[in-house]
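Changelog-adjacent note: as of this version, every example in the card shows the full chain rather than a window. The one below runs 103 residues end to end.
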Amino acid sequence: MSPILVRIKRAVLSGNYAFSEQARTEMESDGLSEGDVTESILNAVAIYKTLRSTSPFRRYSGEPLYVIQSTNLEGMAIYTKGKLVDEEGLETYYFLISSKRAL
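Full-length structure tokens:
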């Protein structure tokens, strides 16, 4: 398992995560709960892909975004995209930008 995925899982297990408004909207439209999303992250065996942010609203250009596709405990495939956030040099939480059912 990749060291990045281990860090993401530890942040989620510790309750150190947050959802963007977009992620919350996607979850609601797909009927997903916060538990569904966290279960899918904890069940993941790999990061599906890493993207570089092109958004002008990001902290810095090229910020890595991690895409995880995995199932919750009921077998529902879920897609999440998020980033690890550092505050004052300490990794504090995993911020989910997108959370929806995987196609």
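Structural remarks: The first helix runs from residue 3 to 13.
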